[in-house]
Amino acid sequence: MGFLGLSLFFVGITLVSNGLNRLLNVDGKSTAIMNLFTGFVLVIGNVIMLAKAGNTFTDVMSYQNVASGFLFGITYLFIASNYLFNLDLRPFGLYALFASIYAALMAVLSYGTDIRFVFLWGAWSILWLEGFLELVLKLKLEKVFPFLSMAVGLFAAFIPSIYMLIDKW
Questions:
Q1: What burial class does residue 11 get, using C-beta atoms within 10 Å of its C-beta: 0-12 exposed, 13-18 middle, 19+ buried?
Q2: Does the pTM exceed 0.85?
Q3: CATH number of the domain that 30 lies in?
Q4: Phi and psi (nearest 5°) for 139?
Q5: Percentages helix, strand, coil for the chain, rounded to the nearest 5?
Q6: In this predicted model, what pLDDT tens digit does every residue of 63-118 receive, in sequence order?
Q7: Number of domains making up the chain
């Protein structure tokens, strides 16, 4: 679980940072740096994984892993771009809806293979769904995001990443 552990390590740090920064009203340009770094790590790493993928069943599973990795990478690049350029976030909200549906489906599919991923995918699905509800449907959830982001960052990314990185997952 090497690259997944590395990816979730930075995802966790970034989610906790984003939540804290929102609570503390930290300047968006300062917040963008960690999002850019995490987004680039995920996108570049997944481009490398995509280049290595072939046509065997194991490689087909690699495509699913790459798709998931890009899903996260684009999320952080979009968030960073918003902090830097003050974008209209409705397109990201729509993206978040599709990401939430994908994550929910992955949670269901994980049920038969690894129950831990049911929890992880479920938590990510809820976080992306919150983005859709807040940014597209304009529900007043601004006070939910910081705490949800920190909880998902810690329990569905950072802590699992440590176990993956030390090969105890």
A1: buried
A2: yes
A3: 1.25.40.600
A4: -70, 145
A5: 85, 0, 15
A6: 889 999 999 999 999 999 999 999 999 999 999 999 999 999 999 999 989 999 99
A7: 1
- What distance in Å separates the CA atoms of residue 151 and residue 135, rounded to the nearest whole number? 20
The residue segments making up the domain with residue 156 are: 2-165
Pair 162, 10: CB distance under 8 Å: no
Structure tokens at 163: 């176990």
Q: Which amino acid is at 136?
A: V
Tokens 């995802």, located at residue: 11
What span, in angstroms and rounded, lies between the C-alpha atoms of 148 and 134? 13
Q: Are 43 and 70 in contact (CB under 8 A)?
A: yes
What are the structure tokens assigned to 149, written together? 């982001």
Gap between the Cα atoms of 29 and 125, Å rounded: 26
Cα–Cα dist 146/18, whole Å? 7
